[in-house]
Amino acid sequence: MAIMTSTNRFAAIPVPVLAIFASPHARESWIAKTTNPAVGEAARAYYALIDASTEKQARALEAGVPTARVVRLRTAHYVFLSNEPDTLREMRGFLVGLK
Is 38 exposed, middle or buried (0-12, 13-18, 19+ CB in 10 A)? Predict the structure, then answer.
């Protein structure tokens, strides 16, 4: 809880950073299949909020940490599992650049 309520800002990151964001989030298949319009609309609204929040975080990192390489992958939450080839490609490219 101390981290969440702290007024310290840890934006000075003087080392290279690779940040991979699941953005936009891939919608789960049941959303398109639901026969309940209220459930479908609630799910779409939820994903819109999550995507907006994730994008805000990604932009803040890009703006505040010049050493950051920010990658966005359209995927589910577990980006390292759902987008393994993309994740490995980005990690390898990042690591090669560290020299």
Answer: exposed
Q: For the whole prediction, is pTM greater than 0.85?
A: no
Q: Which residue has the tokens 């309940």?
A: 36
pLDDT in tens, 22-41: 888 777 777 878 888 898 88
Residue of 97, 95, 24 whose CA lies nearest to 57: 24
Token duo for residue 59: 């932009």
> What's the CA gap between 94 and 81, in Å, rounded?
19
Dist CA 55 CA 76 (whole Å)? 15
d(CA 60, CA 57): 5
Q: Which residues contact 32 (CB under 8 A, 6 or more apart)?
A: 40
